[in-house]
Design goal:
Layout (H helix, E strand, L loop, with lengths): L39 H7 L4 H13 L8 E7 L5 H5 L2 H16 L4 E7 L3 E8 L6 H8 L8 H15 L5 E7 L6 H11 L4 E8 L8 H7 L12 E7 L7 H8 L3 H10 L5
Parallel strand pairs: 1-2, 1-4, 4-5, 5-6
Antiparallel strand pairs: 2-3
Helix pairs in contact: 2-4, 2-9, 6-7
Length: 273
């Protein structure tokens, strides 16, 4: 089952446009004095339940030296069979809300494209300031069978969406999973090929942080440059067995820990202007 993206062009809040228009701002060094992409008053009016997440994300961006940075934020969600408890207890919904709080600081359309994957891409949708509450559970329930864990199909879906959108900002992809991919070679190939694009992949592991299931993600995080890829375009952190217990501040710090260094490397390599 596929769910079409419906994105808004920045500056046209509330008006529909053709699918796929995230992050159309000039990429580059942070302009002095530029604040969050979406004003706090707009977040308060449209999504009051996200205000605290928005403020926490802003503090984390400032601490990381990313105040005023713009980026198109994506969320990729694992729907393999072992993920069922995390959908049931609201963990995945909370991650979507945390991602939206971060995105409101980085991208002014107030919308995050979401890719659900297992064996294939199970569906694509979005969460936005006007439609996020209890949304993940409903979407997940509509997608049917939960399969295996093929990272590469979800990664390619993000790449296709980003390149078709005409975005000029970099992309920050929050990629959640609770285990290694079914096809490791395919996942590594797509990641290395994508290193030429202005996309940074931040992998988030749900489950036992010491599990060998995450060995492959640790490998991806450490793939050599330039032998394997043009720049280091991926990070990984384990959110633990109970990600809901991880504070919002800790999550944002982990999500942003490698993004600044990638921005610098990508500019130096000519990937970003």
């Amino acid at each position: 089952m596929a769910i079409d993206y419906v994105k808004r062009t920045p500056g046209q809040s509330g008006q529909s446009s053709r699918p796929g228009q995230p992050g159309q701002h000039a990429a580059g060094a942070n302009p002095a004095g530029r604040g969050p992409a979406v004003d706090l008053r707009k977040v308060t009016a449209r999504a009051p339940g996200l205000v605290n997440l928005y403020k926490t994300a802003r503090r984390s961006l400032e601490s990381a030296g990313l105040e005023g940075q713009r980026a198109a934020v994506y969320l990729v969600l694992d729907r393999s069979g072992s993920m069922r408890p995390y959908y049931k207890d609201g963990t995945v919904q909370h991650l979507a809300e945390q991602t939206l709080g971060l995105s409101a600081n980085l991208d002014d359309d107030g919308v995050v494209p979401v890719v659900f994957f297992s064996t294939e891409v199970d569906g694509t949708a979005e969460v936005g300031l006007d439609a996020y509450e209890d949304r993940i559970g409903a979407l997940h329930a509509s997608l049917g069978h939960m399969g295996r864990t093929n990272y590469h199909v979800a990664m390619q879906a993000v790449i296709d969406h980003y390149t078709a959108s005409g975005a000029t900002d970099p992309g920050l992809v929050i990629f959640q999973t609770d285990g290694g991919p079914t096809s490791r070679a395919a996942a590594e190939h797509v990641l290395c090929t994508a290193a030429r694009l202005p996309l940074f992949w931040q992998f988030v592991g749900f489950g036992d942080p010491d599990s060998t299931q995450f060995d492959f993600l640790r490998k991806l995080d450490e793939l050599p440059v330039p032998a394997k890829r043009m720049v280091d375009n991926a990070g990984f952190f384990p959110a633990g067995r109970t990600p809901l217990a991880l504070s919002d501040d800790a999550l944002y710090q982990s999500l942003l820990s490698e993004f600044p260094s990638w921005l610098t490397a990508a500019r130096q390599a000519g990937i970003l202007g």
